[in-house]
Amino acid sequence: MIHLIWFEMIKTFTRWRTYIGFIAFGIIVPMVVIGLKLGGQNSFKRSLLSLLQNDFIIGGNVLNGWFFGFFFMGALWVHVPIVLTIVAGDQIAGEGNAGTFRFLLTHSVSRTRIIAAKFIVTLIYTAVMVLFIGGLTIGLSLWAFGGGDLLVIRKGILVIQETRLPYLFLMAYGLATLAMFVVSSLCFLFSAFTDNPIGPIIATMAVIIVSIIIISLPFDLFQSVRPYLFVNYFDAWQKVFDDPVPWDIIRMNIIILAGFMITFFLAAVVYFSRKDILS
Amino acid sequence: MTDIILRTINLTKRYKNRLAVDHLNIEVRRGEIFGFLGPNGAGKSTTIRMILHLIFPTEGDVEIFGASMKEAGHRALERVGAVVEKPAFYGHLSALRNMEILGGLQKPVTRPRIMNYLERVGLADRASDPVKTYSHGMNQRLGLALILLKEPQLIILDEPTTGLDPQGMKEVRELILELSRERGVTVLLSSHLLYEVEMIATQMAIIHHGKLRVGGSVQDLLKKGPSEVLIKIDRPAEAMQFLKTNESYRSARIHSDGGINVELDQDRIPELNRQLVNAGFNVNALVPQRSLENYFLNLIEGHEGADNP
User: Where are the beta strands (DSSP E) in chain B?
Assistant: First the structure.
């Protein structure tokens, strides 16, 4: 199995399209940080701190690197799926499109093992991408704006001491990675249905957009389906910044997200194991 | 140990209302070069894909080295090497990497071994180039190198010379014959090119509209076909009149290139030659026609009529 995973790693990480996401975020994040440094930070000061200063005495470097790292995470998680699907959608459909299954599947190796190897590499890519974005945003923000305690405005206002922040951000990235695993798994499943790598990308984004619309609308009908939509658990990472940290809810979110991921993977295996290779 | 390497048992594939392969039964024995012949769309590729576990049969089974595909699944393919239609590779990777990946799925392969086979098919000097820069012929050769790397006992080739130039086609045929002679490899070769099968196959089966039309040794099937001779002669119109006077040559007709075609057993060619020369004609050539081709076309046309009354 290890050698199958290694072969899939070679196939995936030697394609330039794998690096589109790294290049895109590698350009966007520094640009935003530079923009903030060159004046954008003042807009935050005006709009955010002016509101708070009416009721609070604010001292120290509040608009620091941690604050912007947190801000970036909230802003980017909707965009990350787009780059993840470029690779996940190509994993199975790309082989079908190229006709390489005609060689790959005519060996004494089970389809399940081949699909499992592809899935593991898809998850590796997803994790690397999320950690790259996380590392880049936090690293650049801390470099540009320095450290300090984190001001979190969610269910009220919370100030988290800087000493706890590396640990909390690490946990947040872990939860964000799991949420993105679900996106990649769904795209991977769609990839098993077709030989056109564009189809899974569009289908996955359509599911995400429709789901977000559903959970955003305050209709009773939509709210009742909310627990069954995986995007409902995408903000699990933010919960580690609550006080007290709702560990039970986080644990449940982890189980639900993992459940979605495993279901999508198993569905892909079951479907692909009986699929006629016509390409 | 059974001598039958590959057997299809009532192999059937139905796509909605279309029957692509209809209860097909063929047997390939050890050491044979088995020609699997049929026009485009006859069901050859579907059959090959079912044999290779790429397509799942609607009905029936495949046995490879005595193992049922239904029971053994992909494990039945352990001693099988195959190229299905146009070989496809990871274009952004080199030939060497492609061989490492596709040849090393079952067990890792060493680079010297890969280079040995790339040398064998004349690709050693391009081993490090991305495969997307290869011509179609080079892809075919890489496909064959990949098969050789696996050292299979049964090789399945689906239209292996499609798109190759005459030299490439000749090389592939020679390679197949060499593998059969020197290593005793059994070969199942699908093709719509009759002469290809006639040149290298020992056994053959003809499939049309998904059904087996005929099977047997190529030699036997050659004998079954109507034997024709093309006469290249001066004054063909006069020669036609002369031939029509003889009851034995009533089938004579003018060929499109100006010669004359006549149905005739090959052992009577000298007699025909003698009669024409004695009648004062200059005979330039007497060419026995491809009997298998005629047989094949007659068979297909006959079944077209039967299938579409």
Answer: 4-15, 18-24, 27-29, 33-37, 59-64, 67-68, 80-83, 154-158, 186-191, 203-208, 211-217, 228-233, 253-254, 260-263, 283-288
